[in-house]
Design a protein that fits this description.
The complex is a heterodimer of chains A (334) and B (290). Chain A has 334 residues and is an all-alpha fold. Chain A has 14 helices and no strands. The two termini of chain A are 30 Å apart. The mean pLDDT of chain A is 86. The chains are: A mainly alpha (334), B alpha/beta (290).
């Protein structure tokens, strides 16, 4: 009876979060130097709006806002999975060195490829994704000792890789002229760029599939939470399940890194917030994390675009400014 | 207890189930879980010397031995949570290594030593995880699953604790919740690694009486690693004594709980008398053997 009650409560919280995400989306669409009224939205939808208004909303703002939402979804999903698989609350994509791998390739592209030789809107997302995946794979390979990887080793190696790769990136950046330096610095701090409808479509489809896989893996994540021995006893092939779920997390964070740069904190903090709301059961925690991630990124995007308008603050910095105090509060409490 | 079995005092290295009883022994052949020439180790160092071991079906088996003798390691090897460097383990006569892990989990449940659950997990949620090997797809609980979960909670006297967080329970209640999870797995065989460690005497008895009831009433085969010799002798039908990675004796408590065996396995000079209440052999006093 009480278990049913709890599940209903969880479903209620998720419905509220979904509503919150919808409101945040509307608020973010309206944030900026020009807000859009319901009336104008109606005009755009019916095709009777002035061309400039339609262009501002449909070609500029909407893709940007949706990208922010999706990046929040993906990073939070990745953090949720990594924290579950490693049974470590401090795990997030940044800790695995994934962001640092992407950052190094992006910096290398700016340093070594002459401007205009390859369109950066195409090259950078691909390089960022390749860098993330390569570092994730290298970390996993290095963590295999006597035929088995352990999440603990994976995290320690990730921290080492992240530090090394960041130093290499800094070294590369020393040779950059000021403008390029600022671009790479912005990228590493985490800012949404390349927000086109094509990228939104890729992100939406990719993250949709990965979220479905995570929901499918939720019951296995719950069992992995009991530790490797108990999980084996319950019939989980622990190494295979861990590798599969980590791959889902790496895919999600790689996609986000490709358009959001080196965003940290979102993947770390959002699953914590979600856990406080719905508890440790991943069947509720996965959807809740994804929604909290969307809300936090939309909120950060609003601040990033309006605080110093018309200038932008990298959204990653805003997210960290929101996330860091909350995280300190969490640590102080536990 | 047909075959007369005397404790083995086999020397190091020799493969032996027990001295008068080899692989042709009835108990060995009909065992619920059987290890043949099982060896475990890292690199060149063997923690478990190649040994034969059997968990007799329908009985309570206690694995005893001093710290570091490999008794937990043996249980891990038998439960496939630790890789073997040699030999094979058979569950109902089939090699475990060749069975899908979920199928093994439908026949054999495992309660590891001092297991930990994520903070905030409720008793009901923990016990529901025991249904994992029986579920498919997204894992919604079917009516049959709910029935078994309710039974597991009732038999462990946790019916009123379903919605309580596991970390808010006492040590004894928490151990019962884990046992309930293993019961929800609905297996004939349950392995437990030191289920009474960290519990006070009353809670130790409570857990062991629960396990014996499950054996007697529900026909579960139970094997556990345990430190307390008197409790082992009191509740077990079969005892396996381990020292330095090899089996020094296997048999009924009367056969294993002898001064000679305790001298050999623990280096103790032991005074053993039948317990006036239970009739089982009991350690009345002991000192380090000179």
């Amino acid at each position: 009876m009480t278990e049913t009650l709890r599940r209903h409560r969880g479903a209620g919280v998720i419905a509220l979060l979904a509503l919150g995400a919808a409101l945040a989306l509307w608020a973010d669409v309206n944030a900026g130097y020009r807000s859009i009224s319901m009336e104008e939205l109606g005009q755009i939808l019916s095709g009777t709006a002035p061309a400039s208004l339609a262009y501002t909303l449909v070609e500029l703002r909407l893709p940007r806002v949706l990208t922010a939402l999706l990046v929040g979804v993906g990073l939070s999903l990745a953090g949720c999975l990594l924290q579950g698989v490693s049974r470590n609350d401090m795990a997030d994509p940044g800790v695995l060195g994934i962001n640092a791998g992407a950052g190094l390739l992006v910096a290398a592209f700016i340093v070594f490829v002459p401007a205009g030789a390859v369109p950066s809107a195409v090259a950078l997302p691909l390089l960022a994704f390749a860098g993330s995946a390569a570092v994730a794979f290298a970390g996993w390979r290095l963590s295999v000792v006597r035929g088995a990887s352990s999440p603990r080793r994976l995290l320690l190696i990730g921290v080492a890789l992240a530090t090394g790769l960041s130093s290499a990136t800094s070294l590369l950046m020393l040779s950059l002229p000021d403008g390029d330096y600022a671009f790479v610095q912005n990228w590493i701090a985490g800012s949404i760029w390349g927000a086109t409808w094509e990228n939104v479509a890729i992100l939406a489809v990719g993250l949709g599939v990965l979220t479905a896989l995570a929901l499918y893996g939720a019951r296995t994540l719950n069992v992995l939470g009991l530790g490797a021995a108990a999980a084996t006893g319950l019939g989980v092939a622990v190494p295979r399940a861990t590798a599969a779920l980590t791959a889902v997390a790496v895919g999600a964070s790689g996609l986000c890194c490709a358009v959001g740069g080196g965003l940290t904190f979102v993947g770390l903090v959002c699953p914590h917030m979600a856990r406080r709301l719905v508890g440790p059961n991943f069947r509720l925690l996965v959807p809740a994390s994804v929604l909290v991630g969307a809300i936090l990124m939309l909120a950060a995007d609003i601040v990033s675009r309006t605080l110093l308008s018309p200038n932008e603050i990298p959204v990653g910095i805003v997210a960290a400014v929101i996330g860091a105090p909350y995280f300190l509060y969490l640590l102080a409490r536990s | 207890m047909e075959p007369t079995v005397t404790p083995s005092t086999t020397g190091e290295g020799k493969i032996a189930f027990c001295e008068t009883c080899d692989r042709t022994c009835e108990r060995f052949a009909d065992a619920a879980l059987r290890g043949e020439a099982v060896a475990v180790g890292y690199g060149d160092r063997l923690i478990i010397e190649p040994l034969d071991v059997a968990v007799p079906a329908g009985e309570v088996t206690a694995i005893i031995g001093p710290n570091g003798c490999g008794k937990s390691t043996l249980l891990k090897a038998l439960s496939r949570t630790m890789p073997l460097v040699g030999g094979a383990v058979y569950l109902d006569g089939r090699a475990i290594a060749e069975m899908p892990t979920a199928e093994v989990a439908r026949k054999m449940a495992l309660l590891p030593q001092a297991p930990e659950a994520p903070g905030g997990l409720t008793v009901g949620e923990l016990v529901a995880l025991g249904r994992y090997p029986h579920q498919k797809g997204f894992g919604r609980l079917a009516a049959r699953d709910r029935e078994i979960i309710a039974w597991a909670l009732a038999i462990t006297h946790l019916g009123d604790f379903e919605a309580r967080a596991l970390d808010a329970l006492s040590g004894g209640q928490r151990q019962r919740a884990w046992i309930a999870m293993a019961l929800a797995q609905d297996t004939d065989l349950i392995l437990l690694d030191e289920p009474t460690t960290y519990l006070d005497m009353a809670h130790q008895l409570e857990v062991l009486e629960l396990l014996r009831d499950l054996n007697r009433r529900e026909g579960k085969t139970i094997a556990l690693v345990i430190h307390e010799l008197n409790l082992a002798a009191r509740f077990a039908d079969w005892m396996i004594a381990l020292k330095a990675g090899s089996i020094r004796g296997a048999g009924t408590p009367e056969e294993v709980m002898t001064p000679a065996m305790l001298q050999d396995v623990f280096g103790l000079d032991a005074l053993i008398e039948p317990d006036p209440w239970t009739g089982r052999p009991s350690l009345v006093s002991y000192r380090l053997a000179r």
